[in-house]
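Re-run with default settings, no changes from the original entry. Doing this only to confirm the output is reproducible before filing.
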Amino acid sequence: MPEALSQLWQNLIRIPHLSLYLTVGWAVYLVWLGLWIVLQKREPVATISWLVSLAALPYIGFLIYYFFGPQRIHRQRLRRVRARAALPAPPPGLTPSPEAIELARLGQATTGLPPTTATQARLLIDGGAKYAALLADIALAREYIHLEYYIYQPDRTGTALRDALIERARAGVKVLMLLDAVGSGSTSSAFLRPLIEAGAEVAWFHPMKLRWFWRRPWLNLRTHRKIVVIDGKVGYTGGINITDEEDERLRKDAYRDLHLRLEGDVVRELELVFIEDWCYATGQPPIRQIHPAPQQGAIAAQVVSSGPDSGWEAIHRVHVGAIHAARQRVWLVTPYFVPGEAARMALTSAALGGLDVRLLVPKLSDSRLVTYAARSYFDELLEAGVKIHEYGPRMLHTKALLCDDEMAIIGTANFDHRSFRLNFEISVMFYNATLAGELAALIEQECSWAPRVRIDRERSLWRTRLPEALARLVSPVL
């Protein structure tokens, strides 16, 4: 075999003008791929990063970009307009400042979801609190249960939830479950079969099958949303997936995380986002929503959704807008910190303007590359006056933004390019002093356990500065 390969190579290099053919082919490849990337009109830094990276990988680069490059999804807008027309009118008098009104308008303009209210909004800290509350609410379901998750593991946590859903499905409750095909890839059909046999429906978001190869694949575009809606009355969203890795009762190294339990009209907006995703993934017509009578609560709230089906980057815009609108403080908690220029400018401008700006990130995330990329931005932030805290030893997975004494954003989106541009995400924006105060107390407690990063910290060339610089080069495509 080695002799045959050697002979084949010798015959290949004897082809007349081979180097010319290869050069021309490479040039044609660069022009064609370059036009494809440039015409998407992405940020210049991201575009150049892709061009430089793929130029060094003739032909293979095409496959990498085909499967992993930024893509747009065109969903059925008509369904969205019809569904959102049924939402109640925005409540009057619950946005206390011009800045809050402007942010609410921004959220509605970019998502179609108007400001609304919640009668209850409860912070659930860590998986133990979230899973206990969720199982209790599922046991009380009478009409339907809608679930959407990025990660659903067939472990003790996943089994407990599956069995609770089976019991409700057998009692006549309509159960719809939408799982991301990559994030929940370890959940087998055998594990889900008892749930389906009980009458539930399970669908997969962007499944990767061989028959999809001829179509544009969506391998890099995932639903990172975590949504549960029960009977149109109770809703859940936030950072916690269905996995033992997020249950501190089962693992000492479980993720530190935050989730929301909601009641009131805001649940309608959570459910609408789920219905759009379900219709998109299954091709089924819109589900008829059954809701209790509208009930205006005392907590001003607004759902903000974003994904590659829209070029507005709604969650990104709302975060940046909220930071610019702040007057006293900006406290950001995120497990993955890879900011774009607009977000970085907003944070440093707030700090330079004298605001109390804090950034809480994990000391070591589950991606070393992202950890290095995040730290590459620390010097600029520290020089501007941002207080940076690194949480450990548990992995911090909370995604929250607190501005001043009333504005809070909690959801599934990380503060990075992937969440802002590639993933389907969902956040809830609140204007409420009580909820913001609870979040402030939690962040202060977390910061007290997280050492502050010093600007004069030791940084060796080979172990920190160079890896951080190299990771930063690829941060636009992370």
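The first strand starts at residue 116 and ends at 118. The two ends are 41 Å apart (CA to CA).
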